[in-house]
Amino acid sequence: MNEQRNKSAGATTPWYADFRLYLLVFAVLALFMLKAVFGGGYGCGKSVTGKNSVAPDFQVTGLDGAKLSLADLKGKVVFLNFWATWCKPCVQELPSIQDLAKKFDGNPDFRVVAVSCDESETKEVKKFVEDFNKSRAVEPLTFSIFHDPSQKTALAYQITGFPTTYLIDRRGIIRQGFIGPRNWDDKHFYSMVNELLAEKPAD
What is the mean pLDDT of the chain? Predict the structure, then answer.
């Protein structure tokens, strides 16, 4: 009897027990990585750092080949959105960005700038947008979409997940930022934009 107890006390942990532990650790790490990339569930829109700091200048290229820099938008309120075609939450919020763009379409002092950070070629991003527009039962996306495969602009803004959005005022100051998808067709956000539009441009 004592011999049997000694054998039980000295028994090693089965290999599959260690494997399950490693699997659990991997699953937890994967969850954190997915949250960092996708920014949580749709509609979370958490604020990010950088508020009230000077927005870094950038230069991006549109799907039509046109160049744009933040300096070109001096005196305007800018909605700057970083996204990617492979990011499902990014794609989910595109229609509400279109609603936002349409809401302020008649105001030349407001500009929507959506920057794709896909590492693929621009023609592939353009094809994605074309296919997306064909799949929509309503109007196509009409706001400006740019491509930054080098991700220099995203790095300048210290992006940690997609989508990430910044609202920049007329003086080039970041007034608000959000990481994660959001319904931009929202009266509270509209009020925020209108407040910035009511401010006087910098001299």
Answer: 83
